[in-house]
Specification:
This protein is α+β, with helices and mostly antiparallel strands. It is 62% helix and 9% strand.
Length: 421
C-alpha cells in the first residue's frame, strides 16, 4: 500500500504585490469612468422624471432630489481614494448611496470591483445584500417622494430591475476576481524571474568556486612535485659542506632544471585554465600514465627507490588506458610520490597497477613510514592538502580513494577507478 503523496505547498503571494500602487494615468482613467457612468445614470434619471412630469410642482421636487442625488454621487467619488485602505467600508458606503443617488452608480461599481480583488467571501456576501437592499429601498424612496414615472409601479418591471441588478453585481464581482487572478499571475511570474536570477547568481558563484578549486588542484599537482625536488636539493646544498665541486655543480644544475620545468608546467596549466583560450576548444594534453616511467625516473634521480609493478594489468599497454582515467591515475601517483618524498625521505616506494577494461583500475602506492623531512628556512605545506586533492580527483572520476597507516608500519594510498571499454 503506497503512502499518500505529500501536499504541494504554495507560497502565498504578499498582499502588497496584489495591490500595487497605480500609475497616475491608471488612477485618472478609473475616476473618469466612475464619473462618466455616474453622470450618465443621473442624466438618464433626470430626463425620465422630467419627461414624466413636464410641469407642475413635481418638477421642483424632482430638482431637489436630483441635486441631492448629484451631491451624494460627488461624495461617493470622493471616497474612492480610500478604497485601497478600507475596501469593504468604501464599497458598502458607495453602494448604500444608491438608495438616494443614481450618480453614485459608477463610484459604487468601481469600489465593489476593488473590494472583490481581495477575495473575501464574507465581504462579497454582505456587499451583495446591501446591493439588493439598496435596489429595493430606492424603489420605496421614489414612491415616497411621489415622483415615480408611469410604469415604475409595475411589479414585473420591478422584479426585472432587481434581476438585472443581481446580474450586474455578479459581473462586477467576476471582474474583481479576474483582476485578482491577473495580478497573482504577474506577481508569480515576477517571483519566478527573481528566483531564476538568484539561482543564476548562485550557479555562477558555484561555477566560479569550482573553477578556482580546479585551478588550485592543477597548480598543486603540477608544482608540488617540482618544488619538493628543488627544496630537497637546495637544502642539501645549504647544509652539506662535504660535497665536492662537481657534486655541488650537479645539484645546482638539478635545481635549475626542475625550476625551469616548474615554470614551463605552470605556464602550460595557466594557458589551459585562462578563459579557455585554446584553439577549437581543445585543451592542451595533460600527462597520463604513459608518462609514468619518466615521472619515476625523476624520482629516482633524487636517490629514492621506486618500484613499478604493472603485472596486474594483464599485458595492457599504459598508453591504451582511457585518457580521463589515465590522467586521474597519473595525478594520484604523482601526489602520492610527492607526499612520500616529503614525509618519508629515503624510504623505498612501490607503485602497483592492476585491473582490466570493463572492471576497475586498482592503484596502490605504498612506502614505509619515516621521519618527515624538515628543511630549515623552507615552509611546509599543510598536512592533508594533497590527500584531499587525490580524494576529490578519484570521486570526480566515479571511483574512491582510501589512505592510512597499515599494521606493518607502511603508509598506503589505494585508489579504485571504473575502467570503461
Amino acid at each position: 500500500m503506497t503512502s499518500p503523496a505529500a501536499p504541494i505547498r504554495v507560497t502565498p503571494v504578499p498582499e502588497e504585490l496584489l495591490h500595487p500602487a497605480l500609475q497616475p494615468w491608471s488612477r485618472v482613467w478609473r475616476y473618469l469612468v466612475a464619473v462618466v457612468v455616474g453622470l450618465a445614470a443621473w442624466v438618464g434619471t433626470a430626463l425620465t422624471q422630467f419627461s414624466a412630469f413636464p410641469d407642475g410642482s413635481d418638477q421642483e421636487v424632482i430638482a431637489l432630489w436630483l441635486a441631492l442625488d448629484l451631491l451624494l454621487g460627488a461624495v461617493a467619488v470622493a471616497l474612492l481614494p480610500l478604497r485601497r485602505r478600507y475596501p469593504f467600508l468604501v464599497a458598502c458606503l458607495t453602494v448604500a448611496f444608491g438608495v438616494l443617488s443614481t450618480s453614485a452608480a459608477g463610484a459604487g461599481t468601481l469600489a465593489v470591483v476593488s473590494m472583490a480583488t481581495w477575495r473575501r467571501r464574507n465581504w462579497v456576501i454582505v456587499t451583495g445584500a446591501i446591493w439588493v437592499g439598496a435596489g429595493l429601498a430606492s424603489m420605496l424612496v421614489i414612491k415616497v417622494r411621489g415622483v415615480a414615472a408611469p410604469g415604475e409601479d409595475n411589479l414585473y418591471a420591478q422584479l426585472a430591475n432587481q434581476l438585472l441588478g443581481l446580474v450586474l453585481f455578479g459581473l462586477v464581482i467576476v471582474t474583481g476576481f479576474y483582476v485578482r487572478a491577473r495580478r497573482e499571475l504577474v506577481a508569480s511570474l515576477n517571483e519566478r524571474l527573481a528566483t531564476a536570477e538568484r539561482e543564476q547568481t548562485l550557479t555562477t558563484e558555484a561555477a566560479r568556486d569550482a573553477e578556482r578549486t580546479r585551478i588550485a588542484r592543477e597548480m598543486h599537482d603540477v608544482l608540488a612535485h617540482r618544488i619538493s625536488l628543488v627544496a630537497m636539493h637546495a637544502g642539501a646544498l645549504a647544509y652539506r659542506e662535504d660535497l665536492t665541486r662537481e657534486q655541488t655543480a650537479e645539484t645546482a644544475a638539478t635545481i635549475q632544471a626542475n625550476a625551469q620545468l616548474a615554470l614551463a608546467e605552470l605556464r602550460q596549466v595557466l594557458g589551459v585554465l585562462r578563459a579557455r583560450q585554446v584553439a577549437d576548444g581543445v585543451e592542451a594534453p595533460q600527462p597520463t600514465l604513459a608518462e609514468l616511467p619518466a615521472l619515476l625516473a625523476d624520482v629516482r634521480e633524487t636517490g629514492s627507490q621506486v618500484e613499478l609493478d604493472v603485472l596486474g594489468l594483464r599485458e595492457c599497454d599504459l598508453a591504451r588506458i582511457p585518457a580521463t582515467m589515465s590522467r586521474t591515475s597519473f595525478r594520484i601517483v604523482q601526489e602520492a610520490l610527492t607526499n612520500a618524498r616529503k614525509h618519508a625521505p629515503g624510504e623505498p616506494v612501490s607503485v602497483v597497477l592492476a585491473g582490466e577494461a570493463g572492471g576497475f583500475l586498482e592503484l596502490e602506492v605504498r612506502n614505509r613510514a619515516g621521519v618527515p623531512a624538515f628543511l630549515p628556512g623552507i615552509a611546509r605545506a599543510p598536512a592533508g592538502v594533497g590527500l584531499t586533492g587525490m580524494t576529490e580527483r578519484a570521486e570526480l572520476a566515479g571511483g574512491a580513494l582510501t589512505y592510512g597507516k597499515q599494521p606493518d608500519g607502511s603508509f598506503l594510498v589505494r585508489a579504485r577507478l571504473p575502467w570503461s571499454h
